[in-house]
Amino acid sequence: MSYTVGCRLNDIPHINKYLKNLNSQIPLGDELEVNFESKEQRKERIFQKFVPGVSHVYYFFDFILKRVFPKWSPTKKIYFRVTKGRNRVLSTPEVLGRIVSCGFKILNYERIDLVTVVRAIKVCEPAFNLSPTYGALIKLSRVGLNGAVFNVYKFRTMHPFSEYIQEYIYKKNQLKEGGKIASDFRITHYGAWMRRVWIDELPMLYNLLRGELKLVGVRPLSPHFFQLYPEDIQKLRTKTRPGLIPPFYADLPKNFNEVVQSEHLYLIRYLHSPLKTDWIYFCKAIYNILFKRARSN
Questions:
Q1: How, if at all, do strands 214-216 and 243-245 pair?
Q2: I need a surface site. Which of 82, 122, 179, 296 has the fewest CB within 10 A?
Q3: 236-245 in b/e burial notation, b at 16+ Cβ within 10 A?
């Protein structure tokens, strides 16, 4: 059986609460269809509605009120008090992530005129125990020493709720050169720039001070990405703490298999001679970053 939500998600005050209530009413395996206006569609609608010049001014203030105010602590309460949470600006990754976080699996989504229609299927109960990231400073689950999961702190480079659709995006897009997800539309425009200059990783210095990370080491992976590694590499990875500067910058691997081989070689060398190995990889990484402009984005 299929259930359809008539109104746009943009006009529902408490979206996740609404989706969780739907989850409790829909039997396991049944489908759900929802629609929403994406931020790109909203911009298109505004520029169609007003003449040039007026549309730019309107869009500027609309962006401040509907995109900045809801995410800034001093104005967040004012925004929801005035708008009642209706006519919100939503990105596609955020909507997909909200749906997945509420116990559904995305089947497909498509644009129809100026709305996007999403079809999903109920697969489990809502993820009440997970904390979605919404502000500028976020914390993400990563696998560390002895397989313990801990939170790394970063500045946001992706749309809210993006962490919930990592597996969906991976299956849809696979990996690109360097071992990252190809055409990852979860990344914002400013987020791509922040990644190129490593601004997003500055809060990870806090993890370094707490002893959860070391200066040089394998990249801290999400549980999903960790499971993509061969079992023997997983075991080696959990024998040491992840690092801020991964072997990637020393070896410059081109694809996921080369990334795995690079980390495997590093781990073998590190477990044999920790200080010497980290010093060698640190020097190679700094050289490649400064003179070969190595980047992992």
A1: parallel
A2: 82
A3: bbbebbbbbb
